[in-house]
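Review box. Two proteins, two foldings.
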Amino acid sequence: MFDMMGMMGKVKEMQAKMKEAQENLKHITVSAEAGGGMVKATANGEKRILKIEIDDNLLKPEDREMLSDLVVAAVNKALADAGEKAQEELKKHTSGMLPNIPGLDLSGFGL
């Protein structure tokens, strides 16, 4: 027989764990660099850029295009790494809560 109350309890427990995991994402930080460390970008688990550091040697008008390319590369790497860390954090908090269904994509839920 289907236990509706038990199922609702599991759903509420999962929602609470998801909310806790999502709150923790802002505390995860990841830094990435480009150009051998000349440009560094730091992002959090919410995929927000927190800081960009640029080596003084790149602050020349003739290096404007290269600087732009390096900033884009560092930011994209930081966001990708932050997304991976966020997924790990959310999976850690929800392990055992959801069935392992091949092809189930929970990325719309911040996973």
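Next protein.
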Amino acid sequence: MNRKQFIKSVGVTSLIIPAIPLFSFTKPQEEPQLDKALVEKFVGASHGKFDIVKPLLEEHPTLLNAAHDWRRGDFETGLGAACHVGNKEIATYLLNRGAQANIFTMALFGKIDSIKLMLDFMPNLLNAKGPHGYTLLHHAERGGDDSLEVKDYLISLGLKETRIPLY
């Protein structure tokens, strides 16, 4: 069979159809990022405005672990905001909804066993900087009577600063 006979037998359309892609290689539509102003409002309110935090989180659940970038490496979540000002009501609310706790959260709530485990695991965390450069000692002080043991422990390890400049 020569070329002309082959084309006649299969037809021209069967040769063209394979040129049409069977699958679309378009990029799936991505979820939009959270609006920066909304994240800033939520984080700002998390310092002490529970009446703003609760409805914002109910309407936008992905704000729970969103971090606002204050620049120069200063990132802050709603939980971070509540913790560094000692607002246990907002911190507890966020934790109950699944916010990501960290060593600063443990310091605020006086969780000495957790602090010791974390510092045994990574001793340099003693000098960790939280939002705005606030230290573990600062968070323990904001925890009040519940965190006295943590405060004394941190001081016994040599931590004296409550704030370390970020830059």
